[in-house]
Amino acid sequence: MKRLLLVVAVVIVALGLLLTFSKRPEPLDAALESAQRLQDGPHPVSSFDITLEDTTRPSQPHGDFAGRDSRTLKTRIWYPADLLKEGRPAADPLPLLIYSHGFMSMRTGGAYMAEHMASKGYIVASMDYPLTNYNAPYEPYVVDVVNQPGDVSFLLDHLLSWHTEAGNLFEGAVDESRIGLFGLSLGGMTTTMAAFHPRLHDPRVDAAVSIAGPSFTFTERFYAQRGLPYLMIASEIDALVDYEANALPTLKVPGAMLLSIEGASHTGFADMARFLRWMKNPDKIGCDQVKANLESSSEETWFEAIGTPDEGVVPRDPPPLCEMDPLPESMNPIRQQWLTQLAVASFFDAQFAKEPSVRAASLRYLTQTLPAEIAEVSIAMNNN
Question: Where is the PET hydrolase/cutinase-like domain (predicted)?
């Protein structure tokens, strides 16, 4: 028995070493500015989970799920541990970011970005959306994306209330003039709606990043309701969210930027994709899971629930899903996440850094140095 346990232990250790050290990409050249920016910031990071409940809005019924009178939001918050102390107001308020996960994902789907941003002095929060997360009742329900901008606003309300609560860990900690959103896939769509939707947007949002988020149903009128810094990160070989229909229209948005990563997979943007780096293209798994869920849905025109033509939302047939055959070989997800992290961090630093010189340097890095140093990265802008 002891021998068996020893063998099992050895196998577990070997698998752990394999997952940790094998099939890793070459590190960035230390002489590059990108290598320096990829390093974590100076602050140790802490996090905690909390469950919040919005009793003012329901969770809609679907399938065998009868619905609920409220929306339960399991939330994780990352923060710089040396800047925030229980019972002591923060010396300076910090910028706040909210990450929105993709369809059939979880609040930890962007953990690699959240931890990096917290180390740089940001507060980052992410929640399991009640009906689109992996463990949603009955099955994840894509139609509920229309309610997710309201979840973003609810979470903002809570975090800002903590900011004014004496003795709270976040007392005095949130800078209401530096609030950003970022999200992946359906979370990217949620981010875009919370930033721009004529009816559903939150006016407290100051900047937004959509990572491979669907936008095919949004017109120029949709974005014209308000102006704010906006970045789309996308890939031409994305098998789930068509690049031409969803990413390229970003260039019609005044002041927006489109950062393209050559060879990036859709699934590779998610935190867990680092465990799929032995695959030729992790979108094989992403496609299988998403298609199986969407095909079981009776809501063929769910995007019509998002808005009306007067709001800049035009009913359109969604672009083809997962029709690339065979899937092209994609880049190592770890490298893909490095590049995504560089883009997200430099974008928000360009908007929210306190020193004008740091903001200017971050914008210059994002728009000039990053594409010059990293062959897979290109950037286009609408300067109108």
Answer: 39-267
Residue in 154, 155, 132, 152 with CA at minimum distance from that of residue 142:
132
Gap between the Cα atoms of 182 and 340, Å rounded: 12
Residue range(s) defining the domain that contains residue 372: 27-381
H or E element, residue 231: strand 230-234
pTM over 0.85: yes
Residues 6 or more apart whose Cβ sits within 8 Å of residue 289:
104
Q: Are strands 377-381 and 174-184 parallel, antiparallel or unpaired?
A: unpaired
Per-residue pLDDT of 1-14, as tens digits, reads: 545 444 444 334 33
DSSP state of 279: S
Q: Write the DSSP string, 147-179.
A: GHHHHHHHHHHHHHHHHTSTT-TTTT-EEEEEE
Number of domain units in the chain: 1
Give dist(CA 131, CA 73) in Å, integer.
Answer: 10
Domain contains 6: no
End-to-end CA distance of the chain: 72
The domain that holds 147 is classified in CATH as 3.40.50.1820
Tens digit of each residue's pLDDT (9 = 90 or more) over 139-164 = 999 999 999 999 999 999 999 999 99
- Whether 326 maps to a domain, the answer reads yes
CB contact at 8 A, 316 and 216: yes
Residue where the block lists tokens 């393209």: 260
Instruction: Dihedral sign for Cα 77, 82, 85, 88, please.
Output: negative
